[in-house]
Write a structure and sequence with these properties.
Shape: elongated
CATH architecture of the largest domain: 3-Layer(aba) Sandwich
Distance between the termini: 20 Å
Number of helices: 12
Radius of gyration: 27 Å
Strand content: 15-25%
Mean pLDDT: 89
Helix content: 25-40%
Order of helices and strands: EEEHEHEHEHEEHHEHEHHEEEHEEHH
Oligomer: single chain
Low-confidence stretches: 256-265
Strand order of the largest sheet: 1-2-4-3-5-6-9-10
Length: 406
């Protein structure tokens, strides 16, 4: 995942720290703006996983720390939901002025309430996704009950949330009470996707029901079975990102800029591996995929290995070549299945090898042809399999010229 560190000004003039996650090797199809949960930050693991999933679908993600949180300036005690909404609008304005206006808004927990409130002020947004969002922001007050009396008596109190202490003022609670969501949701006039876990102990599932009921179509609901409020399981957050990407694709469309980008003569495959682990993001001709290694060798098994991809390319090329040849001949070939296996074997297993003491690469390829073909047609197709371009490449001298980008 490629990213840029960014700083922009809030409506109140504070410098807010942001991060723009970009698709690997291609122009973004669209930009998404992410609002993190109450007292969280842009660097929450779940946010990163959702961003990576969206990046793989060609969607850039702009995430930032609200005023007074994370790396952003300002005093958290002076903020409230309304100021968070103002921060979101400032972020959307920054994107529009410097990159492209966001088409997708995503909010987690109280951030979900914030994006619902901000939508009417961000006209570029066509799709809104909430994750574990409260139907009414005042819901959060029940988590502050221990300090409520002190806040009412002195106007402020220190509150510990997720092991961190923050100062909460009376104005924060008053703002929650004054923010009404039903009419905002009913008049959203955007596609809405609601995620919620039925076992969320922080914001109950009934909140999702109220949001969904208030919203008009198009609207969708996804149950995050077994997920906790913060999506601490990597599988849960990656699932959320993948579903948002697939769902939003219906609404963001393809811009002329995107279509032009796919026609560029630079058709290089782009592979990018991060600081830790072997998970590698690959972009090929505008399509995204993941490569990895098994857990047994230190990977996380989130994608095929490099050798799997190599052998897969031979299988795909073989199948395509047979399809093209049979169609040209008008033969009744209904389908092709190609099964392949790569392994390192000692050369003494190879009758044609001169040095019997070294290991060589061996690919076993089994082809299954479906359809009423006669034996002569099947034999000819078996011969044609060896003529597929990738097969020829593997049997030809290959020169790899490597250079450092300067």
């Amino acid at each position: 995942m490629h990213y840029q560190k960014i700083a922009f000004k809030s409506a109140q003039g504070d410098t807010l720290a942001a991060r723009l996650d970009l698709p690997v090797g291609e122009a973004p199809r669209a930009f998404a703006l992410f609002a993190h949960c109450f007292t969280c930050s842009k660097n929450l693991n779940a946010v990163g996983n959702i961003s990576r999933a969206l990046n793989r679908a060609g969607i850039a993600v702009f995430r930032f720390d609200f005023t007074g949180l994370g790396e952003s300036e300002g005093d958290f005690a002076d903020t409230n939901l309304s100021s968070n909404v103002d921060d979101l609008v400032a972020a959307a304005d920054f994107l529009e002025q410097n990159y492209e206006a966001p088409k997708i808004l995503i909010g987690h927990s109280l951030g979900g309430a914030a994006v619902l409130q901000a939508t009417r002020r961000i006209p570029s947004a066509v799709a809104v996704a909430t994750i574990a969002a409260p139907a009414e922001p005042s819901h959060i007050k029940r988590h502050l009950q221990a300090a409520a009396e002190k806040i009412q008596a002195s106007g402020e109190a220190d509150v510990t949330v997720a092991g961190r202490t923050f100062k909460i003022k009376q104005q924060f609670l008053d703002d929650l009470d004054q923010t009404k969501m039903h009419d905002v949701i009913r008049n959203l006039q955007r596609a809405l996707l609601v995620f919620h876990s039925p076992i969320d102990n922080t914001v109950g599932i009934e909140n999702a029901g109220k949001i969904f009921e208030a919203a008009k179509h198009p609207k969708s609901f996804i149950s995050l079975d077994h997920a906790d409020h913060l999506l601490t399981s990597e599988n849960d957050s990656q699932y959320v990102g993948a579903v948002i990407a697939a769902w939003a694709s219906k609404y963001i469309g393809e811009t002329e800029k995107n279509l032009t980008a796919k026609d560029l003569k630079d058709n290089r495959v782009h592979a990018s591996t991060g600081r830790t682990g072997f998970q590698t993001e690959i972009t090929a001709n505008g399509h995204s995929l993941i490569a990895d290694e098994p857990a047994s060798v230190g990977g996380t098994d989130t994608g095929p290995t490099p050798y799997d991809l190599l052998v897969a390319s031979l299988g795909a090329c073989t199948s395509m070549t047979l399809r093209m040849y049979a169609d040209r001949k008008g033969w009744p070939l209904e389908a092709i299945d190609v099964r392949l296996k790569h392994e390192k074997v000692y050369a003494h297993d190879c009758e044609e090898c001169e040095d019997k003491n070294t290991k060589i690469d061996q690919i076993e390829r089994e082809i299954e042809l479906h359809g009423p073909l006669d034996d002569q047609q099947k034999q000819r197709l078996l011969e044609i399999a060896d003529r597929c371009p990738v097969h020829r490449t593997l049997h030809s001298p290959v020169v790899v010229n490597t250079s450092l980008k300067r």
